[in-house]
Amino acid sequence: MADDHGHDGGGDDHDHEHHHHDVETLGAAVVTVTSSRGLDDDPAGDAIAAAFTDAGHEVTTRELIPDDYDRVQATLKHLAGRDDVDAVVSTGGTGVTPDDVTAEAAQPLFGKTLPGFGELFRRLSYDEIGTKVVGTRAVAGVVAGTPVFCLPGSENAARLGAEEIIVPEAGHLSGLAGRET
């Protein structure tokens, strides 16, 4: 019987150790989904960008787009297909209001889903916001060989997701997802 504890198939336990396929320096795309802010007033996007740059990665592009299904979907698809983008992170549009459409727009693009991302994000968020965590629909998956993460729009949520989960794992996930078969 195979010993599978939910790892990527490598069969070994690891705590952020380097693997030969990991992307060392990531090019990250940060997308803020909002109808009420501008790039000059984007604390959640700033927190995500800072998490990448503080870890020695590059933010290759930042975009601010409205809460619109078609626009969110087209933007995520376009950015995931860019050669200079190894990971896409969006913030905003993952709640339960009628204009929160990021999860619905992203999920059809996912060739593979990463359910552990949303599960871990909600587990970590529970320590900060308690049972309100049931209202967050953070999701992640792989689009065209690129990991795409969709975070809530609050600065605290963006910082938590980027610093505690995405930046530590994006290089590994990007290397695996983009690997030639």
Automatic annotation (TrEMBL):
Record region (Disordered): 1-20
InterPro entries tied to this protein: MoaB, MoaB/Mog-like_dom_sf, MoaB/Mog_dom
Protein name: Molybdenum cofactor biosynthesis protein B
Top-level division of the source organism's lineage: Archaea
Source species of the chain: Haloplanus ruber
Source species taxonomy: Archaea, Methanobacteriati, Methanobacteriota, Stenosarchaea group, Halobacteria
Pfam families with a match to the protein in the record: MoCF_biosynth (PF00994)
Domain MoaB/Mog stretches: 29-173
